[in-house]
TrEMBL record:
Its cofactor is [4Fe-4S] cluster. Component of a complex that catalyzes the oxidation of glycolate to glyoxylate. The keyword Membrane does not apply. Keywords: 4Fe-4S, Electron transport, Iron, Iron-sulfur, Metal-binding, Repeat, Transport. This is Glycolate oxidase iron-sulfur subunit. Pfam families: CCG (PF02754), Fer4_8 (PF13183). It comes from Amycolatopsis thermoflava.
Amino acid sequence: MIFSKPLLDRCISCGYCLPACPTYAMTGEEASSPRGRISLMRALETGELPEDDGTLAEQASFCLGCRACEPVCPAGVEYGNLLEQWRDHQWRGGQRPLQARLLMAAVARPWLLRLPGLVRRHARTAASAGGPSLMLGCAERALFPRVSRAVRTLVRGLAAPPRQGCCGALHAHNGDSAAGERMAKELGKTLPGTIVTTSGGCAAHLAAHLGRPRVREASEFFVEADVLPLGTLSVDGRPARVALQDSCHLRNGLGVWRQPRELIRAVAEYVELPSAAACCGAAGTYSILRPRDSARILAAKIDEIEAAGVDYVVAVNPGCLRQLRAGLRKRRSRVEAVHLAELLVIASKQVRPDRQTDLSESGS
Ligand code: SF4
Ligand code: SF4
């Protein structure tokens, strides 16, 4: 048995998901749609298609895993779970792409995750006493340590224990969901209480294994903890124009999309991109495993950002931030990509420190 039967049986083949799927939009082929892929999964399960069928291998890899097919599905198909089960089987052992294997091996070593912090300082405090803790994230510690520092600037008193491992999302999305679950549970023990994360993808993965109440993505935490964004971002004497790129798993998996918009609106002129909710092509390891497809998706996204005439584009996930920065840099764009926490810190610099939120005083 490769798939959970109740999950696989749920699809009624209505096709409502097709217009939401970016890979179907690219090819127009049924096999590249959510419905087509579920048919492939069923054919794999029954043996109608051999294990080494080329279409199975191609479509398991071509899918972004963005889960845009889930919120539009009237039957409640949990496509993200099905994809994890599919890749567990399709990418088992030596069949997993080499780059994914290397990344997974790297993030599974906690000592390696701590190294970037020795070179580029991320936020860190003593171990948490059970209150909310900031998850430092493996990609962020290596690439964007400023993001965790920005969160601690906004919410003084939020614990950020340095001895924490990876949440396991990378493993779950690359064919090792058992390790992904184990790592999430280990992190849950290291960070007791609410886990605050600046990564939409990690938030969705942790919520699936630790339960939704344990997990807060930064924007929802800011709104709930009353971290009011203060100040107004201005550029050339006018309010800054700011767009948002949703995190797919945050929006499609956890239904969080209002909060980041609300926070941006509080400090700047918010500009909704036509495809804000659609994947930017980062999709975890997708930009590494499928660079051409990823670049094609990104090019259209950068066209849109440029056409919108914005000053900043905000991300709520480190993978999206890396992807947008690379695309904007390649175009020599004047638009700056920042994490939401960084944007709020830039705005709050105009505000008296005593008006910033101190978690230890508010008792949140
Ligand atoms: S995944 Fe959902 S929306 Fe898509 S064909 Fe199946 S039932 Fe319909
Ligand atoms: S996860 Fe994204 S790319 Fe994959 S089938 Fe669903 S909508 Fe299409």
